[in-house]
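Quick one, probably user error.
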């Protein structure tokens, strides 16, 4: 048998000998961008969400730049993006999102639903 396969890879094997999984930062960026886009819905305005990520001590810190419609409840939009990103990153990668900062980088005027 080749080293690394077989009896020396079971639960009694020290973790350092079993290997490890590393998730690239760009994977977290992609997951966060898709989660933010989904939270903004199909009628989103402006550019696609811009994401940066840093992983320190097993937890992620994310910055999400978004464009939002105006007038609208900006706090509600930001909270929805923050919750969606934190949930999706943690669920899909097992890396907790310690901090998710949503930055409104642009406002795009939209007509009020009543046409005024």
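Nope, works fine. Designed sequence:
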């Amino acid at each position: 048998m080749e080293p690394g396969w077989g009896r020396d890879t079971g639960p009694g094997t020290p973790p350092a000998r079993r290997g490890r999984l590393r998730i690239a930062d760009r994977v977290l960026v992609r997951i966060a961008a898709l989660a933010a886009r989904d939270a903004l819905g199909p009628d989103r305005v402006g550019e696609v969400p811009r994401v940066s990520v840093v992983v320190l001590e097993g937890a992620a810190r994310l910055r999400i730049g978004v464009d939002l419609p105006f007038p609208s409840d900006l706090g509600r939009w930001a909270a929805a993006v923050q919750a969606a990103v934190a949930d999706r990153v943690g669920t899909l990668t097992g890396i907790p999102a310690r901090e998710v900062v949503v930055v409104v980088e642009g406002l795009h005027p939209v007509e009020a639903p009543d046409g005024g």
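The chain has one domain: 23-109.
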